[in-house]
Amino acid sequence: MIDFVQLVILGLLAGGVYVAVGVGFGLVWGVLNIVNLAHGALVIVGGYLTWQLFTVLHIDPFLTLPVDAVALFVLGYTLQRGVVNRIIRAPLLFTFLLTFGINLVIVNILLAIFGSDFRSVTPAYSGQGLELGSVVIPYVPLISLGVAVVLAAALALVLNRTRTGLAINAIAADRDAAQLVGIDLRHAYAVTFGLGAACAGVAGGLIAMIQAITPTAGEPYTLQAFVVVILGGLGRVSATVVGGLAFGLVEAFGQSIPGSGSVFANAIAFGLMVLVLVTRPQGLMGRLR
Amino acid sequence: MIATPASTTRWRRMFLIVGAIIVAYALLAPLTSLDAAQSANVPLLADRLWFRIATIIAMFIVMATAWNIIGGITGYAAFGNVAFFGIGAYTTGMLIAKARWPFLAALPLSPVVAAAFAALVGLPLLRLRGHYFAVASLGVGVAVGELVQNIDYRGQPLFGGASGLFLPIYSIDNRGLFFFYLMSGAAAVAIAVTWWVLRSRFGYGLMAIRENEEAAAVLGVNTTAYKVMAFALAAALTGLAGGIFSQWNVFINQDNAFPIEYNVQMILMALLGGTGTVFGPAAGAVLLQLLIQFLGGTLPISFDIPFVSDTVRPILAQIILGLLLVGVVIFVPRGVIDFFGGRSRLGLSYLRRSLRETSL
Fold it and tell me: Domain locations in chain A?
């Protein structure tokens, strides 16, 4: 029973990272109709930024997260404005190839700068945890979960309460009508991609504290973000939060099966995705559109 | 079409002539390395390194041409075809290394197993469309590689595990030549299959699916069967290339049998040459693979890039490949063959038009 509780807690805590990775990915997918294969690379850029600030300037890693968000927003805005906007009307395959190309460039630039060594961010309190009886809640994942939920709430607030957010919603509903009422599509698209990238940056900062990162460490997160968004249901931030937590739970239980270990993470993620797509294509929380 | 018929046919004829010369040279030059040719003082036109590169190019011709059947003709953006390459490689590899089958008996099973697997996963996957199919197939590519490396049977890795699978060397005179011609044969088969598909009822059904799946179904195309068959056909050809690769390379593991980057390379090749055509993917494979080998510094003719050390060079090659991907997608989305042959005028106006058609 204690093991079960511990497993649920660990799963939910791990879900925090997936929420953070998923919300940005889901935003870009839902609004721009782009499956961003460079999302994992953007995540790792955020991770390296946090690592750099932590090791060189000795800033507390959680305080570097806003820096990640701002830097990645600028990068994402520039990428969309300069490159991705050029193929918005092209067939699906092209957005895939384009974002994969961007992924390749970013990952290899990181390789050229940082090499392929493992880097980890270890503040003094990492490895410690809250002990409640025989159940242990590690601090870093706990705060990460909190950050992820705050991030999702902030994103939902921006989308539903600000003019820019409403413009983004309008585009998601009907691009041509949005243009007719005077929304600057190029700018709004770039802001959307920038927001997605900012979420990726924050997620990367969290990931750097939880696991050791390399330039290629982001690739699994692209696939996992996709699964998380499908699991929750495309189109709403709250659905992605549910999807992320559910994914964390599934993964925690999957890894607890004797003899499997973490080596089947992708296989589990993929199997889950096909299961959801075949049985409930709108996701756990989604509405049919 | 803005192209005038005269200019199109002129370009096309030139392409065919140049292509035929290149193919003839590539197929005949290796023969000069035979002992008989050497003793007759025929100049050596191709050494072992060139065979190796030419064999790799032929391998990619098979993969790009096979991808074209599902991705180009049927219009389903398959992103995980490397799974079939790996399955083909491991089928032949396991039969030779563990069951001690002779190579030529094991090889025909590679396409069969790959096609069977494709039909099995294709049934649920091909119900998905658009993004869902693309990422689900990407997931298959990743997951199969992972499973092959990690499945244990009675405490022993079933498929050689992380240390890979070693095959006995196939003993035959002129091994390099043998595998070059075998892989070229596979490439010829892939191209011939594409040629047949494009002229058959089956192919017209696939194209109807690409253009409008509902309309195709209404017209009486059994879309599910057609899609699964196209997927399995692509898998069989890719698996054949994998099977030849495993015996040629003698050693296979997750890294060289399931390289994720092949997924995108084969698509880029098809795209570069022109999707939906017979020779386009092959032309793209030659161009792109030569470029990759050149950037990687493995071509015999190579030069030192200033300020770039040997360790950074492969990284730089990847960056250039990524930029090329971005550039091709934005500026020449219909492939180089269209770029040279499809329009009456080349140059900036073509690029600008491509850009305007797809930009926001």
Answer: 16-218
Amino acid at A193: F
Q: Which of A86, A110, A273 to mutate to test the interface with B (most CBs of B within 10 A)?
A: A86
What's the confidence (pLDDT) of residue A118?
92
Per-residue pLDDT tens over the stretch A208-219 = 998 899 998 888
Distance CA B193, CA B187 (A): 10
ipTM: 0.82
Residue A92 CA neighbour count, 13 Å, CB half: 18
Residue A187 near chain B (CB below 8 Å): no
The encoded tokens of residue B79 equal: 């992103």
- Token pair belonging to A22: 């998923």
pTM recorded for the entire structure? 0.83
Q: For residues A227 and A229, what is the distance between their CA atoms, to the nearest angstrom?
A: 5
Preferred mutation among B131, B158, B213, B354 to probe A, highest tally of A CBs within 10 A: B131
The residue of A28, A97, A257 whose CB has the most chain B CBs within 10 angstroms, and thus the best one to mutate to test that interface, is: A97
Cβ-Cβ contacts under 8 Å between A and B: the total is: 132
Transcribe chain A into DSSP letters: -HHHHHHHHHHHHHHHHHHHHHHHHHHHHHHH----TTHHHHHHHHHHHHHHHHHHH---HHHHHHHHHHHHHHHHHHHHHHTGGGGTTS-HHHHHHHHHHHHHHHHHHHHHHHTT--B----TTTT-EEEETTEEEEHHHHHHHHHHHHHHHHHHHHHHHSHHHHHHHHHHH-HHHHHHTT--HHHHHHHHHHHHHHHHHHHHHHHHHHS-B-TTTTHHHHHHHHHHHHHH-TT-HHHHHHHHHHHHHHHHHHHHSTTTGGGGHHHHHHHHHHHHHHH-TT-SS----
User: Is the CB of B323 less than 8 angstroms away from the CB of A101?
Assistant: yes
pLDDT at B306 over 90: no
B102/chain A closest Cα distance in angstroms: 33
Is B66 within 8 Å of B124 (Cβ atoms)? no
How close does chain B come to A95, measured CA to CA in Å? 8
At A84-119, the pLDDT tens digits run 988 888 877 888 889 989 999 999 999 989 988 899
pLDDT class for B216, splitting at 50, 70, 90? very high
Cβ contacts of A83 within 8 Å, gap of 6 or more: A98, A102, B326, B330
* Chain A: residue whose CA lies nearest to B264: A97
For chain A, the maximum distance between any two Cα atoms, rounded to a whole number of angstroms, is 61
Binary contact (A266, B146; C-beta < 8 A): yes
Does the structure show a pLDDT above 70 at A62?
A: yes
Q: What is the pLDDT of residues A190-246, one digit of tens each?
A: 999 999 999 999 999 999 998 899 998 888 888 889 889 988 888 788 889 999 999
